[in-house]
Amino acid sequence: MARRKTSAPLIPFKVTGTGSFLPSKTLTNDDLAQFLDTSDEWIRTRTGIRLRHVLGKEEIPAQMGIEAAKRALSRAGKTSAEVDLLLVATNVPEEPIPGTAPHIAAGLSLRKAPFADLTAGCAGFVYALALAGAWLQVGLARTALVVGTEALSRFVDWEDRATCVLFGDGAGAVVLERKSGESGILGVALRGDPTKLHLLRIEAGGVRLPASCATVQAKKHFLQMEGKGLFRAAVGMMAEATRAAAAQAGIPLAAIDWVIPHQANLRIIEALVKRLRIPAEKVVVNIDRVANTSTASIPIALDELVQEGKVEAGQILALTAFGAGACYGTVILRW
Ligand code: COA
Prior knowledge:
Blueprint: E1 11-12, E2 14-21, E3 26-28, H1 29-33, H2 40-47, E4 51-53, H3 61-76, E5 85-89, H4 101-107, E6 115-118, H5 124-137, E7 143-150, H6 161-164, E8 170-177, E9 184-192, E10 200-201, H7 213-217, E11 224-225, H8 227-249, E12 258-261, H9 266-276, H10 287-290, H11 297-307, E13 316-322, E14 327-334
Parallel strand pairs: 5-6, 5-7, 12-13
Antiparallel strand pairs: 1-9, 2-8, 3-4, 7-8, 9-14, 10-11, 13-14
Helix pairs in contact: 3-4, 8-9
Bound molecules: coenzyme A.
Coenzyme A (COA) is lined by residues 38, 42-43, 46-47, 122, 161-162, 165-166, 200, 225, 227-228, 230-231, 234, 264-265, 292, 323.
């Protein structure tokens, strides 16, 4: 596809490396049907999911983010000593204090770079990407590592067929380098709608409702979701944010070469692209193989697209997500 001449990026940088990691253990829909009242047919037709990867009991969640980050750094030709910002998007931290970022920083042997977690539901990665880009732009860093990593298999109720079939574990990472030029963020629309915060939550384990025998017995440490409400809200939120980000970028939606939507449900993705009138061949879908990996879903899909050699310099990508909070948003990037 031809390189487009549009105005300079709002936030200039170059993505110089991408990486991802999926645990080796997999669960098919038929595997789930062995212990749940569900079927491959129900899951596939309602969600598009066939398979998900899940961490083994002995595996360490942060290791997924570390592996994804190492792959991204190696492809960028960077050592971890050159990283001067690490942002980690995740919903459930490695441990309440100090979170996930310090564990990933330790695994990468970062020494002086600042690191922090960012929680914005499944939209965490697009939030972190925009924030890291702005951090580079104001001169606080030259090389940023943005990681999305999630192990929701540890927080779903494996007796609740309405939630556990939807999620998978994994991690993705990108390396951003400060560079003037034509690549970077062209438009960004990050949003939140706190009237919808009840739609997806883990009620206990924080300061409002600390862990106790009663919270464990009431299953309040598991993910609770109002699926229908989320489904209805998701399409409108991502469509609105994508239109707003494209308007800020000064481009028509037709100029977008690749849409990478959060992989929550194939029907949500199909409804979104229908509403935006974007041809299906421009839309990246891997939910059938990975399910909903939350903050990791966009960087995993992006890495797959890049490794397949499909992304060319100058192309325009729209990354759009929604999730708990309800946080949502779209980042439009020129590659
Ligand atoms: N297998 C079989 N039946 C199931 C099931 C499963 N895994 N999960 C739910 N059901 C049943 C329900 O119990 C219900 O039965 P009932 O009619 O006897 O009460 C029936 O299927 C229909 O359930 P419903 O919730 O209406 O299905 P749905 O078409 O809304 O699909 C979701 C459910 C969860 C797939 C869908 O609402 C969804 O994807 N929502 C968005 C979720 C999301 O994006 N979450 C992550 C946000 S980041």
